[in-house]
Structure to design on (903 residues):
């Protein structure tokens, strides 16, 4: 029946000229019984209306603590004219939720918003058709409030959504043709609706991945060398003595190739067994070590690409009045979620259920199916929120490891990584080396700019898979792993510009992946400091200099918003140098990731005797087009500014010539409460622009502002980060 | 060897089966199925596993279960009742003022670190109901947040302090 209607429906070009008929009642079992993804071209895939006049929206994006689940519900509630209390979403599940691609690039609103909005609009149109029949009133004379459809002017002639469809299928094609509301009519979108996950998170009721337990399960732990070795080298077991844990009752060693783990009924027994197991590893191949890293990257035979070229950079550089040429370095940095990743797997001979914190349930399903040798349709992946991940932390690795342990044990297994597993075997944000050259004319117009960057790409094979013998693959090349045309000079009006990307081979370095605002902190730190030097040479205030070189309204918008928030007063940088022990400085910067616009101002304090740098106040502005929930975005800006300060002052993955050595919060410190800056977050709301991301787009600007503030305070440029006391003291000594 | 132990958690005496050297954290999470204290580092570095032991913030990941015998353990779940007892309220509120203030300030991001943040802030306010900004920072310094929520947590603690003054 449904099919016939769908065909007729399509024939009529999407206009609902025929009365459509609802399908049967949807049972909870029915949804979830088959492998997904469900058909994205069906309205039923996206939402369901229940008899009690509430709705469930099926969203393909993970709540990562950024509030996107609330914001996407706002989008749906707006189009459906429902209250926020009448609408909810469900857990991501490869048998239930649609495939909207992974929760990457802060794009759940950018990519997901339009789909959810269109589906909700389509459902609303169908609901109004039904109501029109029921109330014997043309659609044009109906209005909706909180899911109650009534006849204009006679509110007692009404029917609820719940009464109209209550629990039944729409059986309706999702054509995307239903009209959506104009922004001027928005009542829910654009408001700071409180996040719906927060009450349970503070009361302790929220179920994180780390809380999930299933009957009959064992606790597992992986056994690996402390600190990863070169990507692709794996870790080869030399000797393993299973009898060394015989004294721990019930503990067992499980192994496939060099993948080694232990399981036990009690968690503490599994932890002790993993620690006490006598195992030795073959010698590791060499790594460059922290000291030799950047030199080696420059020496590699790189894959080179001109990302952008316009004008004649060389000629313009040669002939300009003011000229700067600098090199910068930036370290590997780690995701290191506060709670190490965790997964629960129940793998049988023919099927697998894996609960984990992946950013992409469908991609994880594919890799699990291959590794476990089970057809993809027999693998079900469910998402449970873990602690904040900021990109590709060990969530896939832990899911694979749990799957392997469950398969080997023939029982469900819960596996949580230990601190050293997460710190030591992360997919780090790659290290970076940059050469930047830029020139300006006598009045401070940027006439030439060149950015050459070195880094390796992301890794394509998880550690667990590698240890079982799967060959290490490279992540497919993509623009997001290259010198960023937006953050590297893209915000300015520069006639002669060249961006060069030198891709370093990935094997022989550390495992890499996207880390919140991938590489952008490194790019902006180098690029915006180089340009700041031009402002200085031209005798200009750094804010004035940037304004002068910018034409794009939206870049100007965030630059001005940040400057205004900081009550910026014009003067040249480093014009107030002092001989005091503790000096202060301010800096400004702009940058972004893939879309949106970020501007920031930093006010910092430098102790010239101890070398300690602290951000006192950080101001950040984001233009992310139409912002669905400004309260969320303010919170996101705040988090980004604090995390950027952490990355600029503290964070560095250290390695010796065989393995990573930063394995916990002492060897990989992050910013602490005492150093927490005061924050001002500004959302530049643009109701008539498309949604774009807001989860990482002010970090580059903030990194740049911090770099520039250091110069303002000391008259000295930092060419590398993190700005640890020893580096700061060395830089001040060098002058 | 695992054996039976009695411990007092959230004002109830509970019998658990665990080896005496088992860190309290695993007993609370696995035997008593409490969701407040949670694994973060297992090294005493982060505060994810914090509980109150006789009113003092304690890292349950490095505290053997045997060490809390005869003492009173309060977890996140027990904070409203613990607060009510301190304030001599007839009925425990649904949330401790610190919890309510964190909602009011929308301070949470992933929220995983908030067990420790809330336990520590509750301890602080029980000893020092009107802490200065600097005192809050010092007290909270051993509690890490990877998401960077410190500025809003700071505001929430100040707000909770005001709320508690209103109650008293
Ligand atoms: S888990 Fe106990 S202090 Fe980190
Ligand atoms: S809110 Fe995520 S670690 Fe604190």
């Amino acid at each position: 029946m449904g099919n016939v209607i769908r065909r007729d429906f399509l024939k009529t070009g999407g206009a609902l000229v025929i009365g459509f008929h609802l399908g049967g009642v949807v049972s909870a079992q029915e949804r979830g019984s088959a492998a997904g993804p469900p058909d994205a071209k069906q309205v039923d895939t996206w939402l369901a209306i229940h008899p009690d006049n509430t709705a469930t929206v099926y969203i393909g994006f993970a709540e990562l603590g950024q509030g996107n689940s609330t914001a996407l519900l706002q989008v749906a509630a707006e189009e459906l004219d429902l209250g926020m209390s009448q609408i909810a979403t469900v857990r991501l599940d490869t048998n239930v939720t649609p495939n909207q691609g992974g929760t990457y690039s802060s794009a759940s609103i950018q990519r997901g918003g339009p789909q959810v909005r269109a589906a909700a609009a389509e459902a609303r149109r169908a609901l109004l058709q039904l109501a029109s029949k029921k109330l014997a009133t043309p659609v044009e004379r109906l209005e909706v409030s909180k899911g109650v459809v009534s006849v204009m002017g006679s509110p007692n002639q009404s029917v609820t959504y719940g009464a109209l469809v209550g629990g039944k299928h729409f059986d309706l094609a999702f054509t995307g043709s239903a009209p959506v509301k104009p922004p001027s009519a928005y009542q829910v979108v654009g408001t700071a609706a409180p996040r719906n996950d927060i009450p349970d998170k503070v009361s302790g009721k929220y179920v994180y991945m780390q809380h999930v337990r299933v009957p009959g399960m064992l606790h597992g732990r992986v056994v690996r060398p402390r600190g990863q070795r070169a990507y692709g080298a794996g870790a080869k077991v030399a000797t393993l003595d299973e009898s060394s844990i015989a004294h721990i009752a019930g503990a067992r060693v499980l192994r496939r190739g060099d993948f080694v783990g232990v399981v036990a009924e009690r968690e503490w027994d599994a932890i002790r067994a993993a620690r006490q197991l006598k195992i030795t590893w073959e010698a590791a191949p060499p790594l460059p070590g922290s000291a030799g890293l950047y030199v080696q990257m420059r020496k590699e035979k790189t894959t080179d690409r001109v990302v952008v070229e316009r004008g004649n950079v060389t000629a313009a550089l040669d002939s300009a009045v003011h000229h700067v040429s600098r090199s910068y370095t930036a370290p590997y940095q780690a995701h290191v979620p506060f709670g190490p990743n965790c997964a629960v797997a129940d793998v049988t001979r023919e099927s697998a259920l894996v609960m984990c914190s992946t950013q992409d349930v469908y991609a994880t399903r594919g890799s699990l199916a291959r590794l476990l040798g089970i057809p993809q349709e027999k693998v079900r992946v469910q998402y449970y929120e873990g602690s904040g991940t900021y990109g590709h932390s060990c969530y896939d690795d832990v899911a694979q490891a749990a799957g392997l342990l469950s398969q080997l044990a023939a029982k469900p297994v819960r596996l949580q990584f230990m601190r050293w597993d997460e710190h030591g075997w992360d997919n780090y944000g790659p290290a970076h080396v940059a050469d930047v050259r830029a020139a300006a004319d006598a009045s401070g117009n940027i006439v030439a700019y060149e950015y050459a960057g070195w880094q390796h790409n992301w890794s394509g094979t998880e550690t667990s898979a590698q240890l079982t013998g799967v060959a290490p693959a490279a992540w497919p090349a993509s623009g997001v792993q290259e010198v960023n045309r937006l953050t590297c000079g893209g915000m300015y009006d520069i006639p002669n510009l060249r961006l060069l990307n030198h891709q370093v081979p990935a094997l022989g370095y550390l495992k890499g992946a996207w880390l919140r605002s991938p590489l952008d902190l490194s790019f902006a730190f180098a690029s915006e400091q180089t340009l700041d030097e031009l402002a200085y040479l031209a005798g200009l205030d750094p804010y004035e200099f940037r304004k002068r070189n910018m034409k794009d309204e939206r870049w100007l918008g965030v630059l001005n918003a940040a400057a205004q928030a900081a009550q910026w007063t014009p003067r040249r940088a480093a014009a107030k140098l002092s001989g005091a022990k503790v000096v202060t400085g301010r800096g400004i910067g702009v940058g972004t990731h893939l879309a949106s616009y970020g501007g920031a101002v930093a006010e910092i304090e430098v102790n010239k005797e101890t070398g300690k740098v602290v951000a006192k106040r950080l101001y950040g502005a984001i233009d992310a087009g139409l912002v669905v929930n400004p309260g969320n975005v303010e919170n996101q800006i705040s988090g980004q500014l604090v995390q950027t300060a952490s990355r600029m002052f503290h964070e560095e993955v250290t390695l010796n010539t065989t393995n990573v050595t930063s394995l916990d919060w002492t060897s990989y410190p992050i910013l602490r409460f005492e150093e927490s800056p005061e924050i001002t977050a500004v959302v530049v709301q643009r109701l008539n622009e498309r949604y774009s991301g807001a989860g990482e787009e002010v970090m580059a600007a903030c990194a740049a502002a911090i770099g520039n503030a250091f110069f303002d305070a000391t008259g000295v440029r930092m060419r590398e980060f993190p700005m640890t006391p020893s580096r700061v003291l060395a830089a001040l000594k060098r002058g | 060897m695992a054996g039976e132990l009695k411990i007092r958690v959230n004002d109830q005496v509970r019998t658990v089966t665990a080896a005496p050297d088992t860190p309290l954290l695993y007993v609370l999470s696995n035997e008593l199925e409490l969701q407040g204290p949670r694994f973060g580092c297992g090294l005493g570095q982060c505060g994810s596993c914090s509980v109150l032991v006789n009113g003092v913030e304690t890292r349950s990941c490095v505290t053997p279960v045997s060490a809390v015998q005869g003492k009173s353990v309060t977890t996140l779940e027990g904070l409203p009742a613990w607060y009510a007892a301190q304030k001599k309220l007839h009925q425990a509120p649904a949330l401790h003022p610190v919890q309510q203030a964190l909602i009011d300030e929308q301070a949470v991001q992933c929220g995983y670190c908030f067990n420790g943040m809330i336990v520590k802030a509750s301890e602080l306010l029980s000893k020092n109901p009107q802490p200065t900004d600097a005192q809050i920072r010092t007290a909270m310094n051993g509690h890490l947040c990877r998401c960077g929520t410190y500025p809003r947590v700071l505001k929430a603690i100040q707000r909770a302090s005001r709320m508690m003054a209103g109650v008293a």
